[in-house]
Amino acid sequence: MMTLIGIVTILLVLLVAWQLIRIAELSAEIKKENLTGLPNVKENDVQGKLLFGFLIFLMAGFLYTVVAWGPKVLPTPASVHGEKTEFLFYLSLGIITAAFLITQPILFYFSYKYRGIKGRKASYMEHNNKLELIWTLVPGAVLVLLISYGLATWVRIMNPKFDEDPIVIELYAKQFGWTARIAGEDNKLGYANARYIEDVNILGIDKNDPNGLDDIVVQNLIKIPVNKPIKLKMRSQDVIHSAYLPHFRLQMNCVPGAITEFSFIPNKTTAEMRNDPMVVRQVSEINNIRTAKGEDPYEFNYILLCNKICGSAHYNMQMVFEVVSEEEYKDWLKEQKTFAQSI
């Protein structure tokens, strides 16, 4: 029944569209409108000058954007793979910017220079194989090289080769918060399922799986060691979320009913990033705004965010990742309760 209703609805929409087209055609015939009318010399001159003015406005806007917003970009990546993605990003941005700065001034300037003027006659050129070949092959070759390099970079990032086994950490997403689970001494996460969630067992860890008894569950803050490989395994309890750690150049969807992964090596501690000149300047600018509003000062942290609009409190899905030395990480682990100790 629903299928029949859908088919009838589509047919009615097509019929209405056809009738509207017929009405427009009949109206044009009745009014004897000249649908192919050409602009006069004065209109050509005005349009050409307006386009040249828009060119000036466009270039001024571009320069303003670079000067005003350029310093507000993310600081240098805090992960090994992030350096590769950063290079790929700026390579793509450089090519796009170069193409923009070459083509747009030519486009608008030519519209002004060759505008219709009394006594000027335009020459007609039907086809030019050489020009067609150039503006087809050059962009095509650039895109092929860029996409090939991008795919090769993606494959290396998603299939990393580490000198040692990575520390396995699970990120569990739900509306609206994050919970992390660090694999215990065996570096294996125990089986978990949403059906097992009860009381303090907020991740649904199977109590009968010995691999899960030494797992460590933390909320709000997790510490990870610098220069050590980390493997994140991601789950979602309800809807699609997206684990986003911008300073690590890391993002991966958390999908209900599936486990997604992303491995990386953090190469800058939180303390080192706080002393980075760019971070210091940006934090200072933020705190100037917060002080003017009477708010508490901000201190830089690596923050795990949700990059999917997952509901009304989407903005509140945050968790602090603190990158520390290996010694500090081990000391912090000793202070945490295992799953077996918490149940």
Main beta-sheet annotation: 5 strands, mixed
Radius of gyration: 29 Å
CATH class descriptor of the largest domain:
Mainly Beta
| Sheet with most strands: strand arrangement | 3-2-1-5-8
The domain tally reads 2
Mean pLDDT: 89
C-alpha geometry: extended
The quaternary organization reads as: single chain
Per CATH, which architecture of the largest domain?
Answer: Sandwich
Q: What's the total count of β strands?
A: 10
Query: Beta-sheet strand percentage?
Result: 15-25%
Notes on the structure:
- The structure is a single chain.
- The chain is α+β, with helices and mostly antiparallel strands.
- The protein folds into two domains: 42-68 and 75-116 and 130-158, no CATH class; 167-342, Sandwich (Immunoglobulin-like).
- Helix content is 47%, strand content 17%.
- It is built from nine helices and ten strands.
- It has a five-stranded mixed sheet with strand order 3-2-1-5-8, with no helix packed on it. The chain has a five-stranded mixed sheet with strand order 4-10-9-6-7.
- A hairpin with a 2-residue loop joins strand 1 and strand 2 (177-182).
- Helix 2 (41-69) runs antiparallel to helix 3 (80-113).
- It starts with a helix and ends with a helix.
- The model has no long low-confidence stretch (mean pLDDT 89).
- Residues 164-335 form the Cytochrome oxidase subunit II copper A binding domain.
- InterPro entries: CcO_II (IPR045187), CcO_II-like_C (IPR002429), Cupredoxin (IPR008972), Cyt_c_oxidase_su2_TM_dom (IPR011759), Cyt_c_oxidase_su2_TM_sf (IPR036257).
- One of its GO terms (biological process) is ATP synthesis coupled electron transport.
- Its EC number is 7.1.1.9.
- Belongs to the cytochrome c oxidase subunit 2 family.
